[in-house]
């Protein structure tokens, strides 16, 4: 089986995707435009829109989204669900098409969180679970049937560093889930007090 992986450079998932490609003996690409004639293409943490005419050059173009599609389309679905207080996060493996997270579904599987993981551990669990779902697909392929998405869809907007702002009038307990999804390096938690900005970094004591 001819397999390829595509992942955007300078992203948190890039190195893990590269290692996974080596494990599978798959070809690895940073740009989908170069991917042609593959039976299975895993598109993992790739941040460019792929036009349908390019998708048609490969048999299966597979994306993993950390929500129970069609709910939670859009950006950072796992982090939004953590903010909502959820510990059971459904991951969906589906076929890419011209719509936004709208393709036919092959697999759905639930990641169970403890509820106290911080950013790095959350990312590691997200990566491991995503790659496990890719392996599940390969084990079941080609005896795997897809299904159309059904139900009410919802969308999450793109997050930015300003979304890491804490409310000093709320307790840490109330905002712990926000602290969990803040990256100490890239988008740390912060708050304003008396006209000054204060940055707050969080670590688990080992």
UniProtKB/TrEMBL annotation:
SUPFAM superfamilies: Formyltransferase. GO terms for molecular function: methionyl-tRNA formyltransferase activity. Gene3D superfamilies: 3.40.50.12230. Its EC number is 2.1.2.9. Residues 9-128 form the Formyl transferase N-terminal domain. The keyword Repeat does not apply. InterPro entries: Formyl_transf_N, Formyl_transf_N_sf. It holds the Pfam family Formyl_trans_N. PANTHER family: METHIONYL-TRNA FORMYLTRANSFERASE (PTHR11138), METHIONYL-TRNA FORMYLTRANSFERASE, MITOCHONDRIAL (PTHR11138:SF5). This is Methionyl-tRNA formyltransferase.
């Amino acid at each position: 089986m001819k397999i390829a992986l595509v992942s955007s450079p300078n992203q948190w998932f890039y190195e893990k995707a590269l290692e996974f490609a080596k494990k599978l003996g798959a070809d690895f690409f940073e740009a989908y435009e170069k991917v042609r004639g593959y039976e299975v293409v895993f598109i993992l943490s790739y941040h460019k829109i792929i036009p349908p005419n390019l998708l048609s050059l490969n048999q299966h173009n597979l994306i993993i989204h950390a929500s129970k599609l069609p709910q939670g389309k859009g950006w950072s679905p796992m982090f939004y669900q953590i903010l909502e207080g959820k510990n059971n996060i459904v991951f969906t493996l589906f076929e890419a098409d011209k719509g936004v997270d709208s393709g036919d579904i092959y697999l759905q599987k639930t990641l169970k969180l403890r509820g106290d993981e911080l950013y790095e551990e959350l990312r590691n669990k997200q990566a491991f679970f995503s790659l496990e779902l890719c392996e599940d697909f390969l084990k079941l392929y080609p005896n795997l049937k897809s299904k159309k998405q059904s139900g009410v869809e919802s969308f999450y907007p793109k997050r930015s560093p300003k979304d890491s702002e804490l409310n000093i009038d709320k307790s840490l307990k109330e905002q712990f889930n926000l602290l969990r999804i803040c990256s100490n390096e890239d988008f740390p938690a912060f708050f304003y007090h008396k006209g000054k900005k204060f940055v707050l970094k969080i670590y688990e004591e080992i």
